[in-house]
Amino acid sequence: MTRVAPITRLRARLERWARAETGTATIEFVILFPLVVSVMLMSFETSIIMARQFLLDRAMDISMRGLRLGTWPDIQHDEFKAIVCKQAAFLYDCENTLAIEMVPISKTTWNLPSEPPECVDRTETILPVTTFNQGPDNGLMMVRACLTVDPFFPGVGLGLKLDQAPQDGFYLTSTSFFVNEPGSGG
């Protein structure tokens, strides 16, 4: 009979513990907190990506005005990249992570380049060779820029669908077209 009393006391304590409602908020917190925080971080990451894309597009548009009007008749790749990076004030390390290519588009076939734009590979010490041809008078030109950026929160996993770059980055691209004014082509 002395052995029954500790077992019944243990059983009573276990039943009381199973019926108790203390700690239920902790369970909800443990389950929902990571979900809410990850959604919040992904939203912030999305806004940062959109701001960077906006800055790249804006810098390209402002820089393209000079090309459209023939202000820089014989501009070189590095000069144009410096102009774009000057317009994109808040893009980190723009001079080293931006690749720009300018190619003429045939008005008879209207074929656009099928391959993606050349982007900077940060694992390589040699930068990719890009085409920068100002084209003939009245020629249709396509300018593509590719910026290699790092995610703000690399562990969130938002960038799984983005074009992955080496060393945990991704690519932002911007494309613009213009027609060379007469007398402005190369």
Automatic annotation (TrEMBL):
InterPro entries: TadE-like_dom. Keywords: Membrane, Transmembrane, Transmembrane helix. Residues 23-59 form the TadE-like domain. The keyword Transmembrane applies. The chain crosses the membrane at residues 29-55. It holds the Pfam family TadE. This is TadE-like protein. It comes from Rhodovulum bhavnagarense.
